[in-house]
Structure formats: C-alpha cells, structure tokens
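F.,

This is the one I mentioned.
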C-alpha cells in the first residue's frame, strides 16, 4: 500500500467524515439502493451502512474501504469527463452496454458482482475510453 494510503488510514475520523459523504452523494446521484451501496462498499451489515451515513466520522477506515472508495471516485470522475451531461453520466452505469466487457448488461451489474476487481475493471475501462492509462 502506498504511503499516501497509509497516511489516509491514520487520518481516522477526519478522513471518513469527508470521504463517506462524498461517496454517499455519488450513490444518490446514481440512484443506488441500500443493498447496492452495501455491495459496492463491501459491507454485509445494513446497520453499518446507516451508521456510516448518519455518523461518517465514526466509520473505521480499512484498506479495502479506501480501495473501493478510490475506484468509485475514479468511476464517477471518468463519467463526468466522458459524459459532460450530468444526467447521461449518472445513467451510464444502469444502461445496457454492448461492449464485450459487459456482454449487453449494464456496467452496474458488473460492479454488483461485489469484488474489488469488478470496480477496478469498470474504472480501467472508463480510463481507457478517455485516453488515460
């Protein structure tokens, strides 16, 4: 793990108090259900999700959470760059995609497989689409 990520982990409440509201705002724009949000965050307890929403500063940061949050933020940013129309950008995840990577399903279906690698795959796809590496 990078030194920057380690520093974030040590930031504790200050980091989670700003990171989680940003993530939940993205989830709101994407119109995700509580269950979908839990999957993307790697949670298996609904109570934890709602505790994080009401008291983000109390969330315990983990490497897994930081990695997932990084991919979510990257996906969001890439969509905003590729699709400057906010409505289109927010709908992209739930729109069936004929790219072989998604096999006619919505990219959100791939994300909801629940593994970090699925988040990474969608992020890498979007980065490639916008000419990134």
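My design for it:
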């Amino acid at each position: 793990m990078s030194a920057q990520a380690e520093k974030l982990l040590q930031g504790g409440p200050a980091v989670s108090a700003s990171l989680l509201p940003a993530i939940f705002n993205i989830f709101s724009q994407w119109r995700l259900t509580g269950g979908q949000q839990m999957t993307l965050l790697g949670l298996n307890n609904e109570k934890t999700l709602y505790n994080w929403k009401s008291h983000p500063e109390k969330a315990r940061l983990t490497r897994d959470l930081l990695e997932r949050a990084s991919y979510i933020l990257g996906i969001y940013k890439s969509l905003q760059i590729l699709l400057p129309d906010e409505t289109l950008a927010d709908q992209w995840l739930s729109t069936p995609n004929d790219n072989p990577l998604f096999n006619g399903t919505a990219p959100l279906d791939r994300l909801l497989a629940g593994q970090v690698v699925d988040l990474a795959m969608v992020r890498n796809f979007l980065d490639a689409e916008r000419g990134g590496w």
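The chain has a mean pLDDT of 88.

Talk soon.
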